[in-house]
Amino acid sequence: MELSHTAQRFVLHWGEMGSAWGVNRTVAQIHALLYFHGHPLNAEQIAETLSVARSNVSTSLKELTSWNLVRVTHLMGDRRDYFETSVDVWELFRTVVRERKQREFDPTVRMLTELVEGEGFQQETPDAQDRVRECLRLMQTLGAWSEEMMRLSPSTLEKVLKLGANVQRFVRGDKA
């Protein structure tokens, strides 16, 4: 499959950004390809299009599947696995937020809770105790807020995001 100039730029940039997001470049490029293309592709098509090894594609697809960003599908009359991603940007956003929260944020909240409730915490200096409790309070507040935001419909969430930006401009005194 030949990629247009636009598709190439999108896929390459998404791959470069993947590194900044803590994601392997090929993983990000495969996701970008599936998103941009909008139709299921098999691993051979992906490998050929991106000029990467089939084994790299396989490993990357497993990672994307574990993040719930890619799902396996099948085409009538074809025994191969095909892979697709949501073309709904809001669904992808929710998936990434949910997965990152479960993998990164929630374990930190659990650890902080265990520290505060654990043996020996009272032996720490009052200042250290206050800092850990404040960190836990912030994390719990952010977690509750993100849960509420994820319950909103995409259109309502978009309005809330725009409202937040407008509030910030108002508070700073910026002119519209």
TrEMBL record:
Annotated ranges, domain HTH marR-type: 22-80
Keyword set includes Lipid metabolism: no
A Pfam family this chain is assigned to: MarR_2
GO molecular function terms listed in the Swiss-Prot or TrEMBL record: DNA binding; DNA-binding transcription factor activity
Record's keyword terms, sorted: DNA-binding, Transcription, Transcription regulation
InterPro entries with a match to the protein in the record: HTH-GbsR_regulator, HTH_MarR-typ, MJ1563, WH-like_DNA-bd_sf, WH_DNA-bd_sf
Keyword presence, Transcription: yes
Family: Belongs to the GbsR family.
Designated name of the protein: HTH-type transcriptional regulator
Species assigned in the record: Roseateles depolymerans
